[in-house]
Amino acid sequence: MSIGDALADARRQAGLTITQVSQRTCIRETIIRGIEHDDFSACGGHFYARGHIRSVARAVGADDEELIREYDAAHGAPQAIRAADVFEPATPIKIKDRRRPNWSLAMVLVLAVVAGYGIYRVVDSTTAHSARAQASSGRVVTPPTHPAAASSKPAATPSPPTVNPNVVISLTAIQDCWVEFTKPDGRFLVQAYVIGGSSKTWTFARAVRMDIGNPGGIVLTVNGKKLGSPGAAGQPVTLSLGPGKPVTS
Hints:
Layout: H1 3-13, H2 18-25, H3 29-36, H4 46-60, H5 64-75, H6 83-86, H7 103-137, H8 147-150, E1 167-173, E2 177-182, E3 188-194, E4 199-204, E5 208-212, E6 218-222, E7 225-228, E8 237-241
Antiparallel strand pairs: 1-4, 1-6, 2-3, 2-5, 5-8, 6-7
């Protein structure tokens, strides 16, 4: 028995119409009819097809895991990725080559020190001579105070805000929802199905793309910023998420 036949048979045994299944799953009736005829072209891709099969199966009381295995056997399971690929540094570390000492620069610095010391000696000698002249004449001259010296200590410059090097994504499901994360180049990272009434959090050390199957049934928080529902119920969306920055479509 094919996937579509199994779902259609389970729906009829449960006494449900396609309209009722659509209302329970927030999946359009045309997509459900196509799935029952083993036509997954309207699902929008393998990821969404798996999510639709799982959601419909649970609504009609069928074994969703067995149907997903049958689908993966026919269409190919999502390719797994190593944890090292998920948490690899977002920016490559560059190792600087050891440079030879710059003797010309050293000579310039030595000459600058000698010239500075000579100027200091001339100024010091002139100041001492002026002080002796004032002492012999009996006059005391008070040097003027620069306005900047009388001003209060300058306020400390506030340090720039710290940016989180990771992207932290928290999802609270009001209704059942499936999500998939990929790298910006499309390589698969992880897939999850979040049951309504539960929450889940993911942390990545690099920018990611997030596909959401039922955006109207969730509340999304990214990098500590609450974004609410990123779309309408049953209308899949794709978001681009980066470390320490808000979400972009």
